[in-house]
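Researcher: Here's the sequence for the chain we discussed earlier.
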Amino acid sequence: MDRIPFGIRRLDTTIGGGAPPGSVVLLSGEAGAGAREFMHTAALMNGLTRADPDLFDLYYGDLGASTTVPEAVHYISFTGKKGQLYDEMALTMDEDIVEAAVDSVTFHDLSAEYFHLSPVPREWYSERVNAISDLGQTTDQKSLPRALGDCLTEHATNTLVVIDSITDLIGAPMDDLSWDDIPVLLRGITRAASEWGGLVLVHVNREALDTQRHGQLVDSSDGTLVFGWESGGSTRDRTMVVKQFGGVLSRIEAEDIVQFETEIGDSGFDISDVRKIR
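Model: Thanks. This is the structure I predict for it:
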């Protein structure tokens, strides 16, 4: 069975090349623990496969025989700009990677739909200049769920899609989206993704949710990677645990792996060590 690479070599090789096609994976992390860096690394390294194969080979190496890279990479943001994303990536990854790969990642800015009903001034999130012709057209604004759905329907087939971040939907300033809608929306994406045949990564800040709500999101996705901090003496280490993931967790259990130790290096998110059952 073909796999879609996450772009983190040691993880991909451990799980047979990457994620099964058609997967929706929740990236749930404490602040700074690596979930965002994982998301950025996955987008850029998959983009790099086509943008600069030699640079990809330098930082990643050879892809597995059963691995199929996505046809394109799409990055969906509810509140950010492409320039902000570039700056954030460049802070934690080698700038050669960011410069070479960023143009191969198609950025989708849904901030106009997100902030439409908020008290945030329009000029803060929209590059459009108000004109007389704009008057009376505000009622035609797409809802955020509709805009997200249209974007996924158009671009998610056989591609890698990153959604940054479902945390933004919690308490979003809109009348047509409550908390109860969010797990249903994610479950709908998961259902559709099985037909799209690509890979969808959905980021969430673990600290923004109580246990029950987090469990609802976990239950609505195909797989969940949990990123956290582990303290020992005077040091703190980043860790990653595969909480549930059909077709992937069994491979990790077969290797007796219970936890990955992680780090942020020149090539972004990486696995530094594994902890096994003794």
